[in-house]
């Protein structure tokens, strides 16, 4: 099978190879090959490892017991413990704390719920964890085995339409690719999100997703969404939060230093997976038969840049900017007391930085990202 070397592997190996390493948590939604990455790490380290799947009833009682003696009887003699889909085990956060604080053993887990990670793990395991987001396949990872020509001609259209879950990305048969997409979307959206506990109006959540899919390049108005869905603002805000925590969407905040003409208090919302967005609007057409390529392009570039920054440990704040006169900048990064601004163009064009922005933020740079130079931006 075609091998994709995940960028995170080196960082996790480095930590697990140290004395006093942290609890390493690999997390994201389903089907990004978290388990595959974990098993590659285990094989590379050569530690005597106890591998546990959450659905193996032999281990569930012990790993949820909060009993130090029971836990010791299970892990004694091992150098490392690996727990797959750890969030499904009751009280796992407290029990991981017991293991970490009392036994000289390496700990590696996979995790598929951002809710549980935030609410339980972070509370009980403060300062004891390294958490790694394992996104779907990135161009940074594809670059390791493909040259620039192959990245553009073999993968770009594929990813703009079908996105980059490993099983879908590596499938060469178009019909089989579509079938996997539909199966994954059914499991990913309808089972894991729409049936979440305390969601009273699952049909409204799906309608909200469709509205967001058509607004992927626009500022989102909570009031407008609320009126369209006949829901109150608090419910819409809550649903958007749930979709973020479920790894479906992410938001880009506005940039403003309180200039009178600057747009503020509205975010842009993008999709982590363009296949989700394309399935929602019933469009898996080829690029030449689409009228939304500019929006796909913007979503793609911002997401790949997000992956690049995370995987290369680049810490910066990200924004967009617009004034009421419609002058705008698609994407801004702020770090080292400087603004780095970018305009995204599908066609090769060379617009200039908006004059009002340049006058008010003279310490900023400006670059146009198009199909000729986009790889420099994301890899």
Could you outline the blueprint of secondary structure elements for this entry?
Blueprint: H1 8-16, E1 23-27, H2 34-45, E2 49-53, H3 57-63, H4 68-75, E3 80-84, H5 92-102, E4 106-111, H6 114-124, E5 129-133, H7 139-142, H8 148-162, H9 166-169, H10 174-191, H11 202-213, E6 219-220, H12 222-229, H13 233-245, E7 249-254, E8 267-271, H14 274-280, H15 293-311, E9 317-322, E10 328-335, E11 338-344, H16 355-360, E12 365-369, H17 374-378
Parallel strand pairs: 1-4, 1-5, 2-3, 3-4, 7-9, 11-12
Antiparallel strand pairs: 6-8, 7-8, 9-10, 10-11
Helix pairs in contact: 1-2, 5-6, 8-14, 12-13
Write a structural description.
It contains 17 helices and twelve strands. The protein has 379 residues and is an alpha/beta fold. It folds into two domains: 8-133, Rossmann fold; 139-311, Winged helix-like DNA-binding domain superfamily/Winged helix DNA-binding domain (Arc Repressor Mutant, subunit A), CATH 1.10.10.10. Strands 6-8-7-9-10-11-12 form a seven-stranded mixed sheet, sandwiched between helices. A five-stranded parallel sheet has the order 2-3-4-1-5, with helices on both faces. Strand 11 (338-344), helix 16 (355-360) and strand 12 form a beta-alpha-beta unit. Helix 12 (222-229) packs across helix 13 (233-245). The protein starts with 7 loop residues before the first helix and ends with a helix. The relative contact order is 0.10.
């Amino acid at each position: 099978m075609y091998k994709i070397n995940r960028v995170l592997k080196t960082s996790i190996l480095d930590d697990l190879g140290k004395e006093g390493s942290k609890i390493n948590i690999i997390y994201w939604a389903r089907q990004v090959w978290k388990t595959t990455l974990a098993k590659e790490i285990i094989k590379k380290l050569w530690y005597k490892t106890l591998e546990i799947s959450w659905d193996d009833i032999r281990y569930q009682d012990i790993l949820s017991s909060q009993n130090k003696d029971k836990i010791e009887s299970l892990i004694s003699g091992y150098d490392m413990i690996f727990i797959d889909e750890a969030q499904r085990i009751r009280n796992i956060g407290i029990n991981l704390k017991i293991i970490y604080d009392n036994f000289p053993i390496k700990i590696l887990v996979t995790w598929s719920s951002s809710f549980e990670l935030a609410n339980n793990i972070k509370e009980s395991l403060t300062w004891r964890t390294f958490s790694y987001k394992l996104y779907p396949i990135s161009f940074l990872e594809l670059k390791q085995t493909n040259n620039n020509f192959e990245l553009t001609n073999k993968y770009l259209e594929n990813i703009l339409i079908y996105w980059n879950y490993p099983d879908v990305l590596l499938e060469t048969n178009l019909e089989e690719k579509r079938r996997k997409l539909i199966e994954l979307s059914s499991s990913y959206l309808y089972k894991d999100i729409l049936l979440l506990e305390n969601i009273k109006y699952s049909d409204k959540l799906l309608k909200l997703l469709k509205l967001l899919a058509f607004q992927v390049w626009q500022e989102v108005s909570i009031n407008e969404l609320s009126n369209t869905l006949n829901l109150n603002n608090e419910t819409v805000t809550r649903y958007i939060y749930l979709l973020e925590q479920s790894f479906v969407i992410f938001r880009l905040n506005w940039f403003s230093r309180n200039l009178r003409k600057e747009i503020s208090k509205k975010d842009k919302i993008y999709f982590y997976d363009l296949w989700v967005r394309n399935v929602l609007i019933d469009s898996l057409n080829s690029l030449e038969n689409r009228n939304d390529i500019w929006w796909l392009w913007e979503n793609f570039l911002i997401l790949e840049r997000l992956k690049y920054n995370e995987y290369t440990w680049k810490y910066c704040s990200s924004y967009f900017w617009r004034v009421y006169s419609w002058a705008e900048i698609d994407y801004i990064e702020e770090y080292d007391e400087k603004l780095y601004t970018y305009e995204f163009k599908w066609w090769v064009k060379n617009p200039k930085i908006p004059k009002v922005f340049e006058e008010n933020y003279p310490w900023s740079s400006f670059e146009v990202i198009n199909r000729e130079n986009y790889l420099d931006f994301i890899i």
